Amino acid sequence: MNKFGTVAIIGRPNVGKSTLLNKILGENISIISDKPNTTRNSIRGIKTGEDYQIVFIDTPGIHNAKDKINQLMVKQAIDGLSMVDLVYFIVTPDEIFAGEYKMITEILKKVDAIKFLLINKVDIHEKKDVVNVANKVFADGTFMYVIPISATNSTNIDKLLELTIENLPEGEKIYDSEDITTIPEKFLVAEFIREGVFNLLKDEVPYNVVVECENIEDKSDNLLYISASIIVSRNSQKGIIIGKKGSMLSKIGKISREKLEAFFGIKVYLELFVKVREGWMERDEYLKIQGLV
Ligand SMILES: Nc1nc2c(ncn2[C@@H]2O[C@H](COP(=O)(O)OP(=O)(O)OP(=O)(O)O)[C@@H](O)[C@H]2O)c(=O)[nH]1
Ligand SMILES: [Mg+2]
Question: Is the whole model's pTM more than 0.90, yes or no?
């Protein structure tokens, strides 16, 4: 009997949704940082086994969004729920988020899918806190299973996959076994560069950046030429991205190139531009680059 189905991965920002997706796939397709709101739109990853295929949808963190871009991000996370077979709601054992967990559980009650509660980051939390959050959120009756995991350390990930397959509908594969994502190549490249920005810069700068990949060209059998623009919303941010004598831009270039070379398995020549587009976060033509409109 073959199984096919879709699984949405949802939760507050920073709980480890993208880390879990990458761990399940064994490939880093969804960008990760220690800052909240790293993921901005739905990222699909495909996991194929002998007799199953699962499409996982990593989503932006659900939060109380104030501006247009954040509202569109939350909308991405919630809208997708109507189309999935199963939902992973990821929480961490932090008492302070109980209110937000309740709010997300209320959203999930209206969703017609099987729901798993995953308690992540058990590697850095005491057992009593894990049990405490499990009792508080799981007791609600919305969830079929509660599973403590560590996405970083792969704790319980095999068990999670086993229970997921068990609960998916019967169905045939629709993607090739080699496909790991449906993300267009240029978008993936832009995301890898944005990951560099999120990991190297602090405060509000990463939140004012969108990346557009303009070109990917095979220059020869062993060289890929890629050009992309890092777009910021204010002139002062352009200076921060470039850094003293170009030092920051060169760091962003190096970290992004390494990631691109690992992903494509080929040498990459990466050309980066920095552009200022005042208030891009309010403009549909730029929100479109991020896949939000
Ligand atoms: N110790 C520990 N850290 C983790 C674990 N999973 C994720 N993290 C860390 O938590 C931070 C956030 O991880 P992400 O995967 O980007 O979280 P996210 O839920 O996708 O965040 P947003 O996209 O911002 O909503 C990163 O610094 C991860 O390394 C885990 O199991 N244990
Ligand atoms: Mg994420």
Answer: yes
